[in-house]
């Protein structure tokens, strides 16, 4: 890891490496790979994961192409999650759920928006009724 | 009144007793002298004098008693005043406490409001940037699957083995030779099979926006190079494609 003093180029390289790595965390299979090789048990690695939380800040997050990685990163802060990832079944389950969510995301969102629009429509007719009483 | 002195009431009563005794004696003497016709000039004058004295004392004591009564009344009035003032003060105290409570609440709420304003200001991002970013992550199907996606399609909401291997992480060992093409030498299969969508330099890896940003400084040594930084990376990554159950592995 870079020492206290690093050149700008080293810092830039480190930036790109960390950008790539944090996004790799969105891949449940990679997480399973890391877990099975024991990386997730090592304290320095856990510290590194905590350090990577800086990607949640907006000025860094804007570079992420795969935002799922942030959720995985948050989950990885918990020891229980890290322990569970050793199972291949667990990783497979996460993978399936992730893909299903990814698949149906647009449909879910439109449904949610429709529900919100309906809710607003229900509230709105009450407002015009105040004006109607004068015409009656 | 000092405890040693007799109270006015007692003095009055004793004086009255004296007067009573003296007047009784006088009357007895008069009655006696009338029946006996004996000159008792000395005694009756004495008794008369004493009587007059006692009477004077009595009058004085009455005056004192009246004074004392007046003073006592004044004291009572003053006490009432004091009570009234006391209750006024208590009332004011209650009101002050109430006011303080209200002000404290108001100040607290104002502080909370300021905090939330600060928080909102901190998190404020230009809407243009948000739209740009939303466009970026949606256009590349990173957040939402393409409409024609079916199981079997290699695209994923995360970087696939291929993308991981061809990035900077996957090529640390030969970064000096890493020109435009990020493929590993043994990756001829993948090289021939790349769809046009996946260009060698994946946008998720590069800082295609301004290069001004640098990662946060970390002074302490984590003690371990994160995986992917070692030379063994290639072997590990090869092994990973067999681990993954995704259908993206181009095995045929």
Q: How much beta of chain B, percentage-wise?
A: under 5%
* Helix and strand element order of chain A: HHHHHHHH
Which oligomerization state do the chains in this entry correspond to?
heterodimer
Sheet with the most strands, sense and barrel status of chain B: none
Family (chain A): Belongs to the Mediator complex subunit 31 family.
GO cellular component, one term (chain A): mediator complex
InterPro entries (chain A): Med31_sf, Mediator_Med31
Pfam families (chain A): Med31
Could you outline the blueprint of secondary structure elements for this entry?
The complex is a heterodimer of chains A (about 140) and B (about 250).
Chain A: H1 8-24, H2 28-36, H3 43-51, H4 58-61, H5 68-76, H6 79-84, H7 88-123, H8 126-135
Helix pairs in contact in A: 2-7
Chain B: H1 8-36, H2 41-122, H3 127-139, H4 161-165, H5 188-193, H6 233-243
Task: Outline the structure in words.
The complex is a heterodimer of chains A (136) and B (252). Chain A is built from eight helices and no strands. Chain A is mainly α. In chain A, helix 2 runs antiparallel to helix 7 (88-123). Chain B has six helices and no strands. Chains A and B meet through helix 1, helix 2, helix 3, helix 4 and helix 7 of A and helix 3 and helix 6 of B. Chain B: Keywords: Activator, Coiled coil, Nucleus, Transcription, Transcription regulation. Chain B: Residues 241-252 have a biased composition (Low complexity).
